[in-house]
């Protein structure tokens, strides 16, 4: 055991102290920090406020006042805040009431509110007048920006000649107008015309909006073990995130394990090592060392995720047992795929030779990772239940089911763990047999049939 511990410590220290590993470990947190902290400041805080004139030809004479109100900066800001609160509340109920989170998201997404000045033109405009206003859009003055021209149709408020449909409007914009400001103008026009139509029909807009508005309550999941609040937006995303963590942890440890084994074999260093330790001790030490590397990567990203949830007041949405299950299923998944990768590393002489053998292994690893969002959306379907007991897909499938809004029965979880442990033992046994024979063999690279023969012969 002492020799295994020394080998594991050497593998761990050698891996985590390399520049490439440190860069790979820190680059994703750095990118998250860049996107979450710097990008909003670069894109929004430093961008100048859009200021300019919007010419209005109101052929109805009833829209101008409403449009001034709907395009007022204070009204635009209040509208953005309400839309964002509603969206966040529907995605993750309870978050929409978090004032700090909503304000931060509003600043990051919306940017500065444009300052638009409505310039009213004579209502009895002709085609020549409209063309002259279009030319006004092209000739930009140094001290003022000409942003848009709006022509409200005569029947936009009151239907003409008993027609079933209302008229609309024409919008002409400057070539320099950005999409965000154009969207603000569209939304302001829609609200202004609707308000004018309701006023013309002597209808109370507030009462109509209250009649049309139906509050969306947070659903409650009723199960045999009690009731719990449903968090649909969070539970749809969580299975995919946990699948990424499993995949990433296994790939970091397993890929390094295979690479280091090939390097030691091709440089004949392994022959020196085998003079002091047995092949089984060497393999066990390498497996445990890279297991520590994978656990370190998992700990960093799980910690970052918990910190992010804490910052947005969403930590209560995460079940602590999910972290425990994540570690258990990572251990099982790593032992299965790590054993296969170390056996491939022992069987070949160069990295190029390992690619042919790694293809099926990568397929077995990528397929369940891709299926995690599908399983998370239908955790109790026949397909999801069946794949929960088929290794090596079972760990990803059960992790996705546990992270869903309707977790599986406890007996299914423990059965998945037992099946996974049996698969891990079989994979380690297979790897030990192949490792013992392949480590000192050179020449033609084997195929999977040859590896099976080695395992049966050893």
SSE topology:
Layout: H1 2-16, H2 19-45, E1 51-58, H3 64-70, H4 73-91, H5 99-110, E2 115-120, H6 127-138, E3 146-152, E4 169-173, H7 179-200, H8 205-212, E5 220-223, E6 226-229, H9 232-266, H10 269-274, H11 279-311, H12 320-347, H13 351-377, H14 382-387, H15 394-403, H16 410-438, H17 448-457
Parallel strand pairs: 1-2, 1-3
Antiparallel strand pairs: 3-4, 5-6
Helix pairs in contact: 1-11, 2-5, 3-7, 4-5, 9-11, 9-12, 9-13, 9-15, 11-12, 12-13, 12-15, 12-16, 13-15, 15-16, 16-17
Molecular structure report:
This protein is an alpha/beta fold and 458 residues long. It folds into two domains: 171 residues, no CATH class; 228 residues, no CATH class. The protein is 67% helix and 7% strand. It contains 17 helices and six strands. A four-stranded mixed sheet has the order 2-1-3-4, sandwiched between helices. It starts with a helix and ends with a helix.
Summarize this, please?
With 458 residues, the chain is α/β, with parallel strands linked by helices. Helix content is 67%, strand content 7%.
Features:
two-stranded antiparallel sheet; four-stranded mixed beta sheet; 458 residues; alpha/beta; single chain; 2 domains; 17 helices
- The rounded distance between the terminal residues' Cα atoms is 23 Å
Low-confidence segments, given as residue ranges, are 93-102
Number of strands: 6
Q: Return the string of H and E elements.
A: HHEHHHEHEEHHEEHHHHHHHHH
> How many separate helices?
17
Label the overall shape. elongated
Portion of residues within helices:
55-70%
């Amino acid at each position: 055991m002492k020799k295994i511990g020394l080998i594991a410590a050497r593998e761990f220290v050698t891996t985590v102290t390399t520049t490439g590993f440190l860069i790979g470990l820190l680059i994703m947190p750095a990118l998250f920090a860049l996107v979450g902290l710097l990008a909003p400041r670069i894109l929004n805080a430093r961008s100048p406020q859009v200021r300019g004139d919007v010419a209005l030809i109101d052929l109805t004479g009833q829209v101008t006042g409403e449009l001034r109100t709907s395009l007022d900066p204070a009204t635009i800001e209040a509208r953005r805040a309400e839309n964002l609160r509603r969206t966040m509340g529907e995605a993750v109920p309870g978050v929409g009431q978090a004032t700090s989170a909503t304000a931060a998201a509003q600043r990051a997404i919306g940017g500065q509110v444009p300052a638009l000045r409505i310039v009213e033109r004579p209502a009895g405009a002709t085609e020549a007048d409209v063309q002259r206003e279009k030319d006004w859009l092209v000739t930009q003055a140094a001290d003022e920006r000409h942003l848009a021209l709006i022509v409200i149709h005569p029947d936009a408020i009151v239907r003409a000649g008993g027609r079933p449909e209302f008229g609309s409007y024409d919008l002409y914009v400057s070539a320099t107008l950005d999409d965000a400001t154009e969207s603000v103008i569209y939304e302001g026009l829609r609200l202004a015309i609707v308000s004018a139509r309701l006023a013309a029909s002597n209808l109370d807009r507030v009462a109509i909006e209250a009649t049309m508005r139906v509050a969306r309550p947070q659903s409650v999941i009723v199960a045999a073990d009690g009731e719990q609040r449903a968090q649909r937006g969070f539970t749809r995303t969580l299975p995919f995130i946990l699948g990424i963590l499993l995949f990433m942890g296994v790939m970091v440890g397993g890929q390094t394990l295979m690479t280091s084994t090939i390097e030691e074999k091709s440089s004949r260093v392994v022959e020196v090592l085998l003079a002091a330790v047995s092949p089984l001790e060497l393999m066990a030490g390498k497996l445990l060392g890279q297991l520590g590397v994978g656990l370190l990567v998992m700990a960093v990203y799980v910690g970052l995720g918990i910190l992010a949830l804490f910052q947005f007041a969403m930590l209560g949405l995460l079940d602590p047992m999910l972290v425990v299950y994540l570690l258990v299923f990572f251990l099982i998944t790593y032992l299965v795929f790590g054993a296969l990768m170390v056996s491939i590393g022992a069987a070949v002489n160069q990295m190029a030779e390992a690619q042919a053998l790694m293809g099926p292994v990568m397929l077995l690893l990528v397929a369940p990772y891709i299926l995690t969002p599908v399983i998370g959306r239908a955790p109790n379907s026949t397909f999801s239940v069946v794949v929960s007991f088929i290794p090596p897909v079972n760990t990803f499938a059960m992790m996705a089911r546990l992270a869903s809004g309707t977790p599986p029965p406890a007996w299914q979880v423990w059965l998945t763990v037992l099946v996974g442990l049996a698969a891990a033992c079989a994979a380690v046994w297979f790897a030990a047999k192949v490792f013992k024979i392949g480590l000192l063999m050179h020449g033609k690279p084997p195929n999977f049939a040859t590896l099976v023969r080695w395992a049966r012969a050893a």
